[in-house]
Specification:
Largest sheet: 4 strands, mixed
Distance between the termini: 128 Å
CATH class of the largest domain: Mainly Beta
CATH superfamily of the largest domain: Cadherins
Shape: rod-shaped
CATH architecture of the largest domain: Sandwich
CATH topology of the largest domain: Immunoglobulin-like
Number of strands: 16
Length: 263
């Protein structure tokens, strides 16, 4: 005969096995909801999707079980509605991922039954693109020829998909243009391209604004100040204001006397 501890352990094994069997045997119920919706927002009707009468919910002690520290969703036993119980921030739960879903179980007693539930959290455009720094400085020689390129810092947007950074814009100027490129991982980068030769003597510093724009509707944006310091090159020959200078000096002038400029 088994002792008390052995019997207790055997019971827990049976319960765990039952949960596993129920979990694998039940079809998964899927819902979708946007992040940041108000508490109390209805996600779907569990009673209907589980083919249960509302009257059965209390008698069978329907509960929502998950492994998350917060109880993001709960069920109304009077209506069978699954509703939002805690604020859901997709960018906090699933940073830098295309798909975000919360998995839980709907547990029924008498008889025991476990149904898997997946709630897909849809991204909303609630974040603006942002650069790590507010300004960026570049040293550019005035001797460079048009066509020179400079890779610029990228903006970060915690939103995903169509709500992430989609393009960059450069403030109007006569010397530089912007080349925006998309890579295979859907990220976007920008290069500053020199279009017209620089002249430090005319303009030693050029200030531009780089703007990152996301694909939301309406779009959000963030800016970066570009400070371009034009580095001097030896591109000018020393010159005099006149080609000929005349001075008058008295023959008896003492050493150190300043001559008189006459024209």
């Amino acid at each position: 005969m088994m002792g008390f501890r052995e019997q207790k352990g055997y019971v827990w094994i049976q319960i765990a096995a039952l949960f596993c069997l129920c979990d694998w045997s039940a079809a998964q119920i899927s819902y979708s909801i946007s992040e940041e919706v108000n508490k109390g927002t209805v996600v779907g009707n569990l009673a209907k999707d589980l083919n249960l009468n509302v009257q059965e919910l209390e008698s069978r002690d329907l509960r929502i079980v998950s492994e998350y520290s917060k109880k993001y969703f709960d069920v109304n036993l009077r209506t069978g509605n699954l509703f939002v119980n805690e604020r859901v921030d997709r960018d906090e739960l699933c940073p830098n991922t295309i798909k975000c879903s919360l998995k839980m179980q709907a547990v029924l007693s008498n008889p025991m039954n476990v149904n898997r539930i997946e709630v897909n959290i849809l991204d909303i455009n609630d974040n603006s693109p942002a650069f790590i720094e507010q300004s960026y400085m570049l040293n550019i020689s005035e001797s460079l020829s048009p066509g020179e390129r400079y890779l610029l810092p990228i903006a970060v947007d915690t939103d995903t998909g169509s709500n992430s950074v989609k393009s960059y814009k450069l403030s109007h100027n006569e010397h530089f243009s912007l080349d925006v490129q998309s890579s295979g991982d859907h990220s976007v980068s920008a290069e500053l391209v020199l279009q017209k030769s620089l002249d430090r003597e005319k303009q030693p510093i050029i200030n531009l604004i780089l703007t990152a724009v996301d694909g939301g509707k309406p779009p959000r944006s963030g800016t970066l100040q570009l400070m371009l310091h034009i580095i001097d090159a030896n591109d000018n020959t020393p010159t005099f204001s006149k080609s000929l200078y005349k001075v008058r000096v008295s023959e008896n002038a003492d050493p150190g006397t300043t001559p008189i400029l006459t024209g």
